[in-house]
Amino acid sequence: MLTLAIDTATKVCAVGLCRDGQILAEYRINMGMTHSEGLMPQLEQLLTRTKITKNEIDLLAVSMGPGSFTGLRIGLASAEAMAYSWHKPICGVNTLKALAYNLPIDGYVLSPVLDAQKGNFYQAIYEWQQGTLIEHQEIKVVDRKQLLENIAVLGMPALLLGECQKIDLADLPSWCRKAPAHLCWPQAASVALLAEAEYDPDNTGDIFGLEPYYIRRSEAEELWEKRQQE
Question: Which of 62, 86, 115, 150 is buried most deeply by CB count within 10 Å?
Fold first, then answer.
């Protein structure tokens, strides 16, 4: 299976190609460009450099959140448009779970986190056991104290991945540390690998039936509701 993957859930814009678990190519840019201006040129370069045509692609994979509201919409809309015009199936995957695919090692609890604003974080907790990713905690919105408490109850050394900038790393307990920087950020290859593992060809559904995992409402929606109440 040849999978083309997109991840625009954070400020990183990533596209990648995998075939049957083997990473063929990946572009990741973290330079502050908007995804609306960077995504399509990256996809074009990826396919041009690899000499892979749209007809060869078997599956489109896209990171579904949680994450940036605008970024998720851009990634999903682009993936849906390609799936429709190329007549290809599409598979949406959990952004935090895809982050855990960056680091497939036993013996550690992996806690991917993304900034949920206002001092909160999106958090999920996973553990690799002999090549299988086990979910210990589904996605939750937590503050820093809850984040560490959720990990501590498992009684294992832990690694944080994702957007850790607002966590005081110098003040972390000895059993918890940040993963290496090059493994912390979203990777399209991980999105592709997760999609290959989860894709069910007998249950593809409607191309335009996918919904991003927003978890909470956007700040704009909250402000609009507050103004309506006033």
Answer: 62
